[in-house]
Amino acid sequence: xxxxxxxxxxxxxxxxxxxxxxxxxxxxxxxxxxxxxxxxxxxxxxxxxxxxxxxxxxxxxxxxxxxxxxxxxxxxxxxxxxxxxxxxxxxxxxxxxxxxxxxxxxxxxxxxxxxxxxxxxxxxxxxxxxxxxxxxxxxxxxxxxxxxxxxxxxxxxxxxxxxxxxxxxxxxxxxxxxxxxxxxxxxxxxxxxxxxxxxxxxxxxxxxxxxxxxxxxxxxxxxxxxxxxxxxxxxxxxxxxxxxxxxxxxxxxxxxxxxxxxxxxxxxxxxxxxxxxxxxxxxxxxxxxxxxxxxxxxxxxxxxxxxxxxxxxxxxxxxxxxxxxxxxxxxxxxxxxxxxxxxxxxxxxxxxxxxxxxxxxxxxxxxxxxxxxxxxxxxxxxxxxxxxxxxxxxxxxxxxxxxxxxxxxxxxxxxxxxxxxxxxxxxxxxxxxxxxxxxxxxxxxxxxxxxxxxxxxxxxxxxxxxxxxxxxxxxxxxxxxxxxxxxxxx
Length: 490
Ligand SMILES: NC(=O)C1=CN([C@@H]2O[C@H](COP(=O)(O)OP(=O)(O)OC[C@H]3O[C@@H](n4cnc5c(N)ncnc54)[C@H](OP(=O)(O)O)[C@@H]3O)[C@@H](O)[C@H]2O)C=CC1
Ligand SMILES: O=C1O[C@H](COP(=O)(O)O)[C@@H](O)[C@H](O)[C@H]1O
Description:
Elements: E1 10-15, H1 20-35, E2 44-49, H2 55-69, H3 71-74, H4 77-86, E3 87-91, H5 102-107, E4 114-119, H6 126-135, E5 143-147, H7 155-166, E6 174-176, H8 184-194, H9 197-202, E7 208-216, H10 225-250, H11 259-272, H12 278-284, E8 285-291, E9 293-295, E10 298-300, H13 303-307, E11 318-323, E12 335-340, E13 347-354, E14 370-376, E15 380-388, E16 397-405, H14 406-409, H15 417-427, H16 436-454, E17 460-464, H17 472-478
Parallel strand pairs: 1-2, 1-4, 2-3, 4-5, 5-6, 7-12, 8-17
Antiparallel strand pairs: 7-13, 8-11, 9-10, 11-12, 13-14, 14-15, 15-16
The structure holds NADPH dihydro-nicotinamide-adenine-dinucleotide phosphate and the ligand O=C1O[C@H](COP(=O)(O)O)[C@@H](O)[C@H](O)[C@H]1O.
């Protein structure tokens, strides 16, 4: 019997095949989807990097990575072996003049098949790589290219990359990935808002006092220190993931779920973000860096120690931002964004804090209710509402929680957002990928913050690993009379 989600035969070519992303995310995601029978043995995954490996040596590395990062699917030996048979390896320096491309050309011998190039290399290579693909006549009219983040480190470099890739691919064939858009909980924001008209009626400054968007991690920089130290939390997480989540929360209803209808609405939000002046950066943006501390009962080193260097680094591992959206819907609601490494908990969530009652009639009033959208680790929704305290004596009101976890409600099939996004790229559905103007609008908003920091207008504040960031982070909300979620009483 045909599987409902199955897709046509395809050639998927990964540049950066020996890298962290390919081993930890891309190939495990493909194995899980193969295990779920979303595609067949006629697919080919052609992996390219400079390192000299035979295809069999490479497959052994992949086998080990899959056992670690997709253990359940990898335990099915028959499926694992069939999957590994789809994986080819080509050793090629794709940006060096005179490299021998014949190995890759031999694999790509059918221009009628769906062809997707996935660039999991340094972004500096994206444009030269696309030029090399064109030189070797490997771009067919139905070829797509997937670009990993970050697209540039500034507005200027983003435009350079977009121009460079755009010389060889039309915009509709360029898929800029943001794995947060592949998260179930992020996509559910669309359903929550636009399939629940009653809820959408509350979705504005009239009822919402503030919105918090948090992406907190307990991990440090791990092996990605050299990249991260150049990037920092603002470029690594805010410019892309957090702003995309903010767009999903704040946008107006798109005309349809078609890619450009969604992207047009997201773009309007990005363009409506209140531009940051240096003075506003000073008062509305906190930057921090972790010192040694304890997480889950374990001592963990400082950022400098994680980097393995003696000298101090000026890179932020934490950012918190207070901003506003210049629109009739949201003008009176602050949005707080925060992200950081080595924080107290791994959690990605959105909190919409309701406004208090205008005229309280109860002698005790609990804190105003809120809606919490949990994106990770356990996806779900919580609605905190005031209820009558049923215990005897007087009429008291206290908060109760309506809780819906996806795990109890549904059979979750997608374990990682890359599973969905890789297959969307193969199917040719760009709705969850970022358009050029969105990337550039995000950079336009981020750049004044970076410029301010460059002129040392904001201090880099230390925070102990295992905390919720620098102490001043609380004050950012306190001035609006607000609390971060972890500080709220039920
Ligand atoms: N790792 C992660 O969790 C995430 C990564 N990303 C992005 O994904 C991309 C890849 O990241 P990551 O895997 O961590 O990086 P790595 O440094 O681990 O891997 C880079 C890969 O590129 C290959 N490579 C470098 N130069 C060439 C070349 N000239 N021709 C062919 N292959 C080449 C390297 O292999 P070799 O040396 O053998 O050539 C290696 O396989 C980056 O843009 C990163 O920002 C985005 C989100 C998360
Ligand atoms: O893109 C990135 O995201 C991860 C966090 O992703 P999540 O899905 O675990 O929330 C982050 O660790 C990494 O630094 C960043 O590049």
